[in-house]
Each structure stands twice: as C-alpha cells, then as structure tokens.
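Action item from last week, closing it out:
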Amino acid sequence: MEQHRTRPPQHGPRRGTPPAPLPPQARRRPTGERAPARRPVRPRPAQPARLPGPRLTGLGGGLFSGALMFLLGLIDQLLFGGSLTVYGVLFLPVCALTALWVRGGDLLTAPVLVPIAFAVGLLPLADDGGGVAGRLMGLVTALATQAGWLYGGTLIAGVTVIVRRIQLVKRRRRGSPAGPTGRTTPAGPTGRA
C-alpha cells in the first residue's frame, strides 16, 4: 500500500542541495581580479539657462513679498519719515523678484500677490488718525494716492510672468514631439499608437 504525503512541501532549499547561485553583483571577487570595465557615461545634453535664485511656491512668494514690503515700510518710516515715493520705488524691484522667483507651476499667483504685499507694507506708513478706524482710513488714503506705484509694480510682475510662461511653453514643446496641428500627441507625430 502506498501512503500519500499529508504534510505540505517545505519551501526553500532541501538539505544536501547546493544553494542557488548569486547574481554577479553579489559575488565576491578573489583578490587580484580586476573589476569588469564599465560602460562609458554619456554626457548629458546642455540644459537651458535658468534664472538664478530660489523657487518659491505661491504661498512662499506671498510670504516673501509681504514680509519684505513690511520690512521696507518700517525702514522707510525710520530713515525717510514715511516717504511714500521711496516706498513706491522700493516696491518695483520686489515685484520683479517675486515674479522671477516663483516656480513655474505657480506663475499666475505673482501678479495677485504683489498688490497684497503693497498693502501690507503700507501698514507702518499709513497715518493713524487715532484708533483702528483712523489707521484704516490712512491705509485707504495711501492706497488711493499711490495707485500709480501699485499698478506699475503689478504690471512689472505681470509682464515678467507672461515672458516666463512663454519660455516655459517653448521649452516643453522642444522636448516633446509635435503633431501636424502643433499640439503634442502621446504616441508621436502621427498620432497612432
């Protein structure tokens, strides 16, 4: 009579059988043996010139421009007696830097952030006629009288963002195949997979 096995087979090597061979990376080389020659590394294609500086998210760009304009407002108050013209001139480079340093995915936030930063920086400069209502009225008056600087800085940020966006789109189109209509297709120029 034949007896069938009641225990399931064990997974793994059995006693007396040699272990499975190791892959070539895991084998030890005897001393004196030279390592195999590696394939030559291909040089990477030249990357297009990128703008120097940090890459800020939308929130980071808002914090950067708001904090910097508030600091410049305080400095203007201390050194120049709260000159709104000096403040407006200092606002323009902050707009350019914010638009240059915001990352590609958040480009459209820069023209929205800089007017908010302008208003935040006016807080130390606004005339306080006494209390919160007087401070608010001074802020509204400063915004109304300095609208030229506000529009100019927003225009600088907007133009910078548009130029960066055009460059970004051109760079992406160069990197992927374009179809007959100029649109990129996932399968190539013919559109067939």
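Closing note: The radius of gyration is 32 Å.
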